[in-house]
Each structure stands twice: as C-alpha cells, then as structure tokens.
Design a protein that fits this description.
mainly alpha; about 80% helix
C-alpha cells in the first residue's frame, strides 16, 4: 500500500504544533517548581508547622499531579490510537491551558483556609491528567512525520521545547522577582506566570487545528485489522521504557527544577542567586538536546544515552560537592550546573525517538506516553518530596547526588538492552 500523501511543509507544522503544547506544559511545571517557596507560604503554611514542612506539602501536591499523568496517558493514549493524534492533542491542550490559568485565580490559605491547598491540589491533578495525554501524542506526531534517519532530530525538538518551557518559566519568575518587591511577589505577583498560559494556549490551538494527521496513523487506518498488539508485549515494553528513562526523569527534575528550592533550604542560598543557577542549568540542558538527537541518528540511541548515564553516575556526587563548598564562587557553581544540565540534555535528545521506536503505531501514543509518564510520576514528581524528606530525616545534604546515582545504575542496565540499529529501521519494522 502506497504511503499517504503529505502536504508540503506538513513536517514543519507538525514540529511546531507538537512542540508548543510541551512548551506550555513544562513552562507551568517550571513556574510551580521555581515558585515552590512562595506557593508553600501562601497555600501550605499550616498553623504550627515549619517552613520545611510547608515545602514538603507543596512538593506532595507537585507529586500528586505526576501520579495522574499515567492515567491521562492511558485515557488519552487510547483515544489517540483510535481516533487520531490531531483531535486528541487539541482536547488535551485546551484543558491543560485552562487548568494552568485557573491556578492564578485561587485565593490563598489566609483567605479561605484549608480549601486553598485542596483547590490547588485539585487543579494540579487535572493538569497531570491532561499533561499525561500530551507527551505520547506530541512525540508520536513528531516521529511519525520524521523522514527516515531524522527521528532523533525530530524527537529532540520535543525535548528542546521542554527546555524552552523550563527556561521561560524560570525567566518569568526571575523577571518578576527583579521587578517586584518580595512582598508584592508573595502577595499577587506569583499569579502572573499562570495567567500567561492563556495567550500561549490560543497560539497553540491555532497551530494544532491547522495541522494534518500523521502519515503512519492514516496508513494504519486503511489497513485491515489482522492482529492486535499483545498486551504482554506492550506491558513489557513499557516496563523496559521506564527503566531506560528513569535517570532522565530523576536527574532532570533534580538539576533543572528542584535545585533552586534545595539551594535555598539546604544550602541557604539567596532566592535570586538560586534562580540564576537554575536558569544556567536549563541553558546547559537546552544546548545539548538537538546535537545529541542528531548524533543518535548517526551512531544510535544506545551509544549516546549510555554515555550520558555513565557520566551522571560518575559526576553526580563531585558536582554536588562543588556546589556545597563555601569556597565555590557563583561562576564555579554556574559551570557545575551547566555541565549537569548538559548531561540531562544528552538523554533528552535521543529519548523521545528511542521510546517511539519501542512501540508499533497501533499502541504508540499509549505505550510511549505511559512509559514516560510513569517514569516521571515515580522519579520526577517525587524527586522534590523524596530529596527534601530524606534531608529532613537524615540531615545529609548529599541526598540529591545519591538519588541520581541510584537511578543511573538501573537505567544503565536497561539501556544496554537497546538494539544498536533501532535508529536505522522504519517505525513499522
């Protein structure tokens, strides 16, 4: 059966339409993470509890949202594998944008009491549900439109817009913290970044309404259903996928999102300096994503991702020790987080294409979305909670490094099972 006709520039439109939803999703998660100390005081500072306890409660709300992502991946993944990538991605985009903007409307704890943290947590749950349906569809869209030999590059754009979203979130918070007094930021300024999701969502909706359905999905719909993907095969692929991206999830959130709060609460770094360091780590992340995606198209996903995992395992503790050293200048700390962010980018570049290549078209949206969201629920969403909680219990400020190292060991074993030549075959082979 001949391949379906693809309109000129459809590939570029697919990249833009897939990317912008991820941008909004991760912009919001970055804003929430970077404003964690502000949100903790406004919504989770319960009577008689310490500041660290309120921060832990804030991260608990953060983690709960991640645990609804797998449910979203299943619900919207099944819809996307049945009716198409385009309509499903439009639905999740609209709902995700509205849930984000609504956070900016919630009254604080001092105004409505316990209802405030409950409403915030409820909106986070909705965000998690809809965001869970975003990733699988966006990566399916991008990789299914990619020409053979360029899936790593196309998939890397998904991760690159994650980096841009994180940087935008950090940049907006940094700008507000510069322009506003601390009191104004805590009072009302923190709401502005959440409202900004609305105009972003309008642009994203326009792009998604005007895009085409993917050639792979169109071709599959024309074929008679002769076999269904075996549930056990799909489940096995999902479990292996979780193992392969575990360190990506753990290191990504450790270095790119929760680092500001860690630097403030554990190392007593100032808010603006901690935020600047976080921005630099995200720049390092962004710089290596596209090159590593391109490299994985040439030498394979396994080689690039195993190298990055090995470097994270070896360097996690030494890099953290440099951050902790009183003699370390701001420039040295910036270099450390730039390197750490760059190593995460080496995983995020080939990662989307690697996951897409693990599943056939009929279950790709569901399978890769579930593997990614489960990994993020367990090892990203819980990162702040686990690290902050363990530091509180043990007093050991090296916990972030041990956390990354433990996940690197598991991911190394899972990545070694990758076929060296997966990047060379078509998605349906």
């Amino acid at each position: 059966m001949p391949a379906p006709h693809v309109a000129p520039n459809a590939h570029k439109r697919a990249l833009m339409a897939g990317s912008i939803g991820n941008f909004i999703e991760w912009y919001e998660f970055a804003v929430y993470g970077f404003l964690a100390t502000v949100i903790a005081k406004n919504f989770f500072q319960l009577s008689g509890e310490t500041g660290l306890t309120s921060l832990i409660l804030t991260y608990a709300s953060f983690a709960i949202a991640f645990f609804f992502r797998p449910l979203g991946a299943v619900v919207f993944g099944r819809i996307g594998d049945r009716i198409g990538r385009k309509p499903t991605l439009i639905i999740v985009l609209v709902m995700m944008t509205l849930a984000t903007a609504a956070i900016g409307l919630v009254p604080v704890y001092a105004s409505i009491g316990l209802a405030a943290p409950l409403i915030i947590t409820g909106l986070r749950i909705l965000q998690g549900l809809f965001a869970g349906g975003e990733y699988g569809g966006a990566v399916s869209l991008m990789t299914e439109f990619a020409p053979r030999g360029k899936r790593g590059l196309y998939g890397a754009w998904q991760s690159f817009t994650v980096a841009l979203g994180l940087l935008a979130g950090a940049g907006v918070v940094a700008l507000l913290s510069t322009l506003l007094t601390p009191d104004a930021l805590h009072d009302w300024g923190w709401r502005i970044p959440f409202f900004l999701a609305l105009p972003m969502g309008v642009v994203a909706l326009w792009l998604r309404v005007s895009m085409e359905e993917t050639p792979s999905f169109v071709q599959q719909q024309k074929q008679p259903v002769t076999e269904r993907a075996r549930f056990t095969d799909t489940l096995k692929a999902i479990v292996i996928g979780i193992g392969r991206v575990m360190v990506w999830s753990a290191a990504g959130y450790t270095y790119l999102v929760i680092m500001p709060a860690y630097l403030q609460s554990a190392l007593h770094t100032g808010f603006n300096q901690a935020l600047l360091i976080a921005v630099i780590s995200n720049i390092g992340f962004a710089l290596t994503i596209i090159p590593s995606g391109i490299l994985s198209d040439r030498i394979g996903r396994r080689a690039v991702m195993v190298l990055a995992t090995a470097l994270l395992l070896i360097l996690a503790l030494p890099l953290l020790k440099i951050l902790q050293a009183e003699s370390s200048t701001l420039a040295i700390k910036a270099l450390v987080v730039l390197v750490a962010g760059g190593l995460v980018g080496m995983l995020a570049g080939p990662g989307p294409a690697m996951l897409a290549e693990m599943f056939p078209t009929r279950v790709r949206y569901t399978g890769l979305g579930l593997a990614y969201s489960l990994s993020n629920a367990l090892f990203s969403g819980c990162a702040g909670l686990i690290i902050t909680g363990l530091i509180k219990e043990t007093g050991n400020v090296d916990i972030p490094a041990y956390y990354v190292m433990a996940t690197a060991v598991v991911s190394m074993a899972a990545l070694m099972t990758l076929n060296k030549n997966d990047h060379l075959r078509s998605l349906e082979e």
